[in-house]
Write a structure and sequence with these properties.
Radius of gyration: 19 Å
Order of helices and strands: HHHEEEHHHHHHHHHH
Largest sheet: 3 strands, mixed
Number of helices: 13
Shape: globular
Number of strands: 3
Helix content: 55-70%
Distance between the termini: 42 Å
Structural class: mainly alpha
Length: 294
């Protein structure tokens, strides 16, 4: 983050974040502009999916605003599942409240997290696996689902996106947010921090905008440990990918790895570990692996 700030002519993150806060070009001019930016990034990533996945979702995704009555406490964006029969598509719900106080920096990375290849893709693929029993098609494990979504943000880098330095800064800042959560959550529920202590910690360690700081702080108070699952899951998927690459060498195929992770639906991380271990063994033996059965 500091490297980006210095490249753009700022000596430190404090002065850079202050400049961002005052730069009208980095703040949405309307609610509709926020929605259109999300749609643009999701559409661009959708075109890239065949390079990284063999199995693609059939279901499409829509971008809609969060309902007005939820704007104060809702996160910046969230995903709402579509129905398995396709009659109601999945929705990326964007909080457009207080849009002038928000920045556009994290819109790209959040579009990949909530849309594709994040929540929409993972959940839609699970719903579209006919061999899975229904309870597995709709299984909900925080560390898997949110870990995959964080991993998906990183895939944006591999796909050659985040070309705008401010967007890359927003991507890194969101990764920092997930690290801050580890401190804030345990601060609340183990160290007995006050709400103001968490707000102050946010401001001391990031340039995250005020509406996000307030809603995120309330979220960690109300839902202990949920936010910790994000990083735990992301780090596990990255670990499994690195292990697969190391053990398979030239036989490693990123499309095959991604299909293996997604083709069993959401699952506990120890089950995912066993699944990928089996896939590695099958690849070494020259077999197609468990994913081919689905």
């Amino acid at each position: 983050m500091l490297k980006i700030a210095r490249k753009l002519g700022y000596k430190d993150l404090t002065s850079f974040d202050a400049a961002i806060a005052k730069n009208p070009k980095l703040h949405p001019r309307s609610r509709e502009e926020m929605l259109e930016l999300y749609r643009k990034h999701i559409d661009r990533m959708w075109a890239k999916l065949p390079q990284y996945f063999g199995r693609l979702p059939k279901a499409k995704v829509e971008v809609l605003p969060v309902e007005a009555y939820r704007e104060k406490e809702a996160s910046g964006a969230q995903y709402v599942n579509g129905t398995p029969d396709g009659k109601r598509p999945g929705h990326v719900m964007v909080n457009t409240g207080d849009f002038a106080k928000r920045t556009t920096l994290d819109i790209e990375t959040t579009a990949y997290h909530e849309g594709v290849p994040g929540h929409h893709m993972q959940i839609s693929v699970a719903q579209e696996l006919p061999a899975l029993p229904r309870f597995r098609q709709h299984a909900f494990y925080i560390a898997f689902i949110e870990g995959w979504a964080l991993y998906s943000e990183r895939l944006g880098e591999e796909a050659g996106f985040y070309r705008d330095p401010y967007s890359m800064y927003g991507h890194l800042q969101d990764d920092l947010l997930r690290a801050i959560r580890l401190v804030a959550d345990t601060g609340f529920h183990s160290k007995h921090w006050t709400r103001q202590q968490v707000v102050d910690y946010f401001h001391a360690n990031s340039g995250i905008d005020e509406p996000s700081v307030q809603s995120e702080t309330d979220r960690y108070m109300a839902w202990p440990a949920q936010a910790l699952g994000y990083k735990i899951g992301q780090l596990k998927i990255l670990e499994l990918r690195e292990r697969s690459k190391k053990e398979l060498g030239s036989r490693f195929d990123v499309r095959g790895f991604h299909d293996e992770v997604l083709s069993g639906g959401a699952m506990p991380l120890d089950v995912l570990d066993k699944r990928v271990t089996g896939w590695i063994a099958a690849r070494k033996a020259g077999a197609a692996g468990p994913a081919a059965l689905h």
